[in-house]
Design a protein that fits this description.
7-stranded mixed beta sheet; 6-stranded mixed beta sheet; single chain; alpha/beta; binds nicotinamide-adenine-dinucleotide; 15 helices
């Protein structure tokens, strides 16, 4: 059945997207397009290229041609161009925020306060980092007659293949583009087919900021066609991927024999541990954010809350009271705190966990259904924020990434039990620990098998800190110097020099 279209959604923002290759906007070679749907209304508002390998080949060729000159561009100039891109996004920030909301379904207030500012910051951060990099020089082998000077150089690899998901579209895409370009690589990007508009706007900004043609190319379309063609391309020596664990495993397998540099930022099933000595109001308030921000569609969302038995009821009461204050509906309304899920298919997947919870006899403390919304939003992909208790540790509800507004709350008796349950999943992305006991904070943080632990906080990021996951949550770290290292190859040059003279 074809989806309804709504021409009133077509005003003011780009609706017919084109690939950005070699500095020009071009249609896909086959002339095929995909529909772009607004998750808040279920209406089609535009289209994007359904690119295939021929478009990817063209983009990689453009990026290869641009590489020598970009690599040799002085770092001061590259930094200035990245800052110009940041300024360009800033000048159009409202347009970016509205496009992100229309594509993804997130509250406009969130796109304005988090997604778009962070994209700007990503460019500024790596423009600055580039200017403050220093390289290593080691002296050794000193004798009366000779010495050895070993120094390292770091250089770009060539064309970086950058593949990103739909949940934080511009935020995550720029987290890759900025360090890739800063270090002198050129890039071909493949944003998610569900959320392409801000990548298209970014291409306009890059062109207007003076990024040379071919340095950054954007190819739109599906993962199994355009994405796959990009990651396996023989002239793409580096792939940075953020997305689902299944897709990451597939990509790792596809590129294994070609020895590409690979960074995988994958799924999470993050635990939130609340101890009896914690500030319960703060823990409850922040847990509402960590459970439901962006409709629970953030890889770092704390979807399993473990609460010390003695405070279980008082925490739950606070947590539920705060959750009931959330407002689900029109993402453009200032009061809305939960927008729509990204697609009908994704909502159906999340709803299948409601069914599972009912089958398993879990208790729905709140939520568990679609909200009733007025007018155009009745066809949007909304769900109520849902809190479950009474879920077994082995249940798929506690083990699988749901990526929606569902959280389980489970009591624990002591620290060891909390740690066991937190670690006993295949994922290892992040965790939050709520306690005022300093030793416990360190002890528990050290024992958690995850890439990032927050203590009495959630989603607080210093962009210099390494970011990434353990276990099925990924491979490698990005952020600060870790990104600069990932996007470059290190070479050691060892030079022996003679101390004696004629
Ligand atoms: P996804 O894996 O379905 O898609 C991600 C991207 O990969 C999309 O652009 C898609 O088109 C592309 N793709 C799909 N198949 C491909 C293939 N065979 N080859 C190359 N590219 C392919 O993920 P999604 O549904 O868009 O995003 C949600 C997932 O992303 C969740 O699991 C979430 O946890 C994860 N995520 C992780 C992080 C992190 O930093 N660890 C951040 C955000 C999202």
């Amino acid at each position: 059945m074809s989806k309804p279209t709504n021409p009133s959604e077509t005003s003011g923002m780009p609706n017919s997207l084109l690939n950005f290759i070699g500095g020009e906007f071009v249609p896909p070679a086959r002339g095929a397009f995909l529909e772009n749907v607004n998750p808040a209304t279920g209406c089609v508002f535009g289209r994007l290229p359904d690119s295939d390998a021929s478009d990817v080949n063209r983009a990689v060729e453009a990026a290869r041609n641009a590489f020598p000159s970009w690599r040799d561009t002085p770092r001061e100039k590259r930094a200035a161009l990245l800052n110009a891109v940041a300024n360009g996004i800033e000048a159009r920030r409202e347009e970016f925020a509205r496009a992100e909301t229309r594509d993804q379904g997130k509250p406009l207030s969130l796109a304005r306060s988090m997604d778009i500012p962070r994209a700007i910051e990503n460019f500024r951060f790596f423009a600055g980092a580039l200017l403050h990099e220093a390289q290593e020089a080691l002296e050794s082998g000193a004798s009366h007659s000779s010495a050895l000077l070993s120094y390292t150089t770091r250089g770009p690899l060539g064309v970086a293949g950058l593949v990103t998901p739909w949940n934080l579209p511009l935020y995550l895409l720029t987290w890759k583009i900025a360090p890739a370009l800063a270090t002198g690589n050129t890039a071909v990007c493949k944003p998610s087919e569900f959320t392409s508009t801000t990548a298209f706007l970014l291409a306009e900004v890059m062109r207007d900021a003076g990024i040379p043609p071919g340095v950054c190319n954007v190819v739109f379309g599906r993962g199994e066609t355009a994405g796959e063609a990009l990651v396996v391309h023989p002239h793409v020596p580096l792939v940075s991927f953020t997305g689902g664990t299944g897709t990451g495993a597939h990509i790792a397998h596809s590129v294994a024999s070609s020895f590409k540099k690979l960074s995988l930022e994958l799924g999470g099933k993050n635990a939130n541990l609340v101890f009896a000595d914690a500030d319960l109001d703060l823990a409850a308030r922040t847990s509402v954010r960590s459970s439901f921000l962006n409709q629970g569609e953030i890889c770092l969302c704390g979807s399993r809350i473990y609460v010390e038995e003695s405070i279980f009821d008082s925490f739950l009461e606070r947590f539920v009271a705060q959750t009931r204050k959330l407002v689900v509906g029109d993402p453009e309304n200032e009061k809305t705190t939960l927008g729509a899920l990204v697609s009908a298919e994704h909502r159906a997947k999340v709803e299948s966990y409601f069914t599972l919870a009912r089958e398993e006899g879990a208790h729905f403390v709140c939520g568990g259904k679609r909200p009733t919304l007025p007018g155009p939003f009745q066809n949007g992909f909304f769900l109520e924020p849902t809190i479950l208790t009474g879920v077994a540790h082995s249940s798929r509800l506690q083990q699988e990434e749901i990526f929606g507004p569902i959280v389980t709350v489970t009591p624990f008796r002591h620290e060891a039990e909390a740690l066991f349950m937190a670690n006993d999943v295949r994922f290892g992305l992040s965790a939050s620990v709520w306690t005022n006991d300093l030793s416990r904070a360190h002890r528990v943080a050290h024992a958690l098998d995850v890439g990032t632990v927050w203590v009495n906080a959630w989603l607080a990021r210093d962009l210099r800190a390494p970011f990434g996951g353990m276990k099925a949550s990924g491979l490698g770290r990005e952020g600060g110097r870790h990104s600069l290292e990932f996007y470059t190859e290190t070479k050691t040059i060892a030079l022996k020099w003679d101390k004696s003279h004629d």
